[in-house]
User: Fold this.
Amino acid sequence: MAEENTSTQGISWEGVAGILLLVGFIVYLLWPGVNNVRTPARSTIRSNQMRNMLICVTQHDLAYGYTQATALQPQFEPEDRLSWIADSLPFIERNDLHQQIDFNLKWNDPKQSKATKHVMKVLYDISFQSVKPVTTYVGVSGLGKDAAYLKPSDPNAGIFLYNHKTSLDSVAEQDGLAHTLLILPTNSDIGPWAAGGRPTVRGLDIDRHPFLGFGGQFGGFHKRDDYLIIGFADQHINRISTDIDPKVFRAMFTKNGSETLDLDYRRDPEWMLNEKGNEQESVEGHEESKESSDN
Assistant:
């Protein structure tokens, strides 16, 4: 008489369920590590993109001696002018697009569309997926929603003004390049990179909170983001917490507001304002950049 084979053929449902539970548990344990790798990677890409935008503005200033919130089109209202980005295209290696733009026309004239409809990934944050010709990087115009309309001598004025040129040399002689914001990222009211006005230039609206983070005026690309990369006029970048002291953040927006920041504030968790700051480092850095460009 043949013996009965009592072994189970294949894997039982209980076995499959056990394997799935084991795999799920392993993924649960490893997922924080995956996020810890992805977060520094995003931060590095954001830093590189911000650095490129700072270089773009600085090179324009070295070539022409000024920075302005829009192209030089005084015949149009700021919102109808071409943006500072459009004017600076050669400095992000897009001279081909720059040559296609007619600076005698408004930014949204149909004749401009061949160039202005171009989507450029260098102009928006890695977390911002777009098939439209937009930017998430804006020039800083100072304190106040309409700061870009201020005169250069106004203590609330920043660097990007609609009707006035600003040289970075003049900023070095005032609050200092290392203390003055030049470019900020935003996920609020995104607009065309070619457009003058709010899509490409912002002041800090002191009545609108939060200033930073998800749902705020600047940064805020993801709910989990607790930081943003900001760019200063001396080309240095900094990763700041969305919990930064509002007084310190406000002080960074003006170029001649007489607020000075300790150069060590970037390493100081208390983010404290000091009465005096050392501006010599930023001045010398800008001078060296000018000399190398002239050579």
